[in-house]
Design a protein that fits this description.
By secondary structure, this protein is an alpha/beta fold. The chain has helices at residues 18-26, 50-59, 77-82, 98-107, 153-167, 184-190, 199-202, 207-215; strands at 5-8, 33-38, 64-69, 85-91, 111-116, 134-138, 172-176, 194-197. It has one domain: Aldolase class I (TIM Barrel, Alpha-Beta Barrel). The chain has 8 helices and 8 strands. Catalyzes the reversible epimerization of D-ribulose 5-phosphate to D-xylulose 5-phosphate.
């Protein structure tokens, strides 16, 4: 088992002290900073947009993993690239022309990710898996932090790993939602590569230590 990529979700941070929170992540063993963008339409919540992403980028020395939980993401990917995104993930469910969306992101020089909601079958990505740099499996229903982990996620990870292997692809598998010390090892054993953790990190007494423990789980 390889060492996981840890991507703490800034959605769970203290927004009144965003610079301090980003600097804490800079000083931790976190690999990426996960930035959740919500529009109140695709998901029933609104988070923040391009200016806040840019502000995070100005203080971050780690790649921004930007997760677009929005309708019509093709209208915004260029702006998020300019705001500092290195990885841009769009939702399968929001992209009727997914192949075009993936190519648009890659043409900007970003890594392209595709997220799947809990009800979406991983086999729907078989025809584009070689074009995708990362698949983000939602292990909670998107829109709110601190939700309970959905147990069916392990099965989806194993199925997706098989699709990736059969295609000879190098696609990473990211897990987003309800990740903690109790399920991290099982997720990695199933085939996950990237762990997103929000409230588990930022609500802990010692976030730097919590990240370190996830890194060595």
């Amino acid at each position: 088992m390889t060492t996981p990529i840890i991507a703490p979700s800034i959605l769970a941070a203290d927004f009144a002290n965003i610079q301090r929170e980003v600097e804490m992540l800079n000083n931790s063993e976190a690999d990426w900073i996960h930035v959740d963008i919500m529009d109140g339409i695709f998901v029933p919540n609104i988070s923040f947009g391009i200016p806040v992403t840019q502000a995070i980028h100005e203080h971050a020395n780690k790649p921004l993993d930007v997760h677009l939980m929005i309708e019509k993401p093709e209208n915004y990917v260029q702006a998020f690239k300019k705001a500092g995104a290195e990885i841009i993930t769009v939702h399968y469910e929001a992209c009727p022309h997914l192949h075009r969306n993936i190519q648009q992101i890659k043409d900007l020089g970003c890594k392209a990710g595709v997220a799947l909601n809990p009800h979406t079958n991983v086999q729907l990505l078989e025809d584009v898996i070689q074009d995708i740099d990362m698949v983000c499996i939602m292990s909670v229903n998107p829109g709110f932090g601190g939700q309970k982990f959905i147990e069916n996620t392990y099965k989806k990870v194993r199925q997706l790993k098989e699709i990736i292997s059969d295609a000879g692809a190098t696609t990473l598998i990211e897990i987003d939602g309800g990740v903690n010390q109790d399920n991290a090892k099982d997720l990695l054993d199933a085939g996950a590569d990237v762990l997103v953790a929000g409230s588990f990190v930022f609500s802990s007494e010692d976030p730097i230590n919590t990240i370190s423990k996830l890194k060595t789980v």
